[in-house]
Amino acid sequence: MAPSFDLIGLVVADLSKSLAFYRRLGLDIPASADTEPHVEVTLPGGPRLAWDTTETIRSFDPGWTPPSGSPRIGLAFRCDDPAEVDRVYTDLVGAGYEGHRQPWDAFWGQRYAIVHDPDGNSVELFAALPTT
After folding, report:
1. Mean predicted confidence (pLDDT) in 3-31
2. Are 37 and 55 in contact (CB under 8 A)?
3. Could you tell me the strand order of the sheet in which 122-128 lies?
4. Per-residue pLDDT, 127
5. What angle do CA 101, 51, 49 make, to 5 degrees?
6. Which residues pair with 110 in a beta bridge?
């Protein structure tokens, strides 16, 4: 039997800041999670998204160091329509999160935008463009 994909884990510097960002994107994360060293939510379809503080990671991997340079992972959130891409991007940037790429109509047929979460991970917003 082959392993089955189950979890995406994010290592975060400030858990409450990271959870606040993902709550703005609609993830149902209880407020009590802000004080935990490890948090998980089950996403639609079954996979889980987890957050661990740097201290938690170093508790079992003392040599762990944060990556540098550009993010190597991107999480993508599907929006209902192109207007929602614009609205969510504006909401996140207005709340102080880093807008990396303003919404644009991509050649592959989607409205697309990129923001960075508090730890610099790429979070992509997309929706199908109307067909003509």
Report:
1. 93
2. yes
3. 74-78, 122-128, 110-116, 98-105
4. 96
5. 75
6. 128
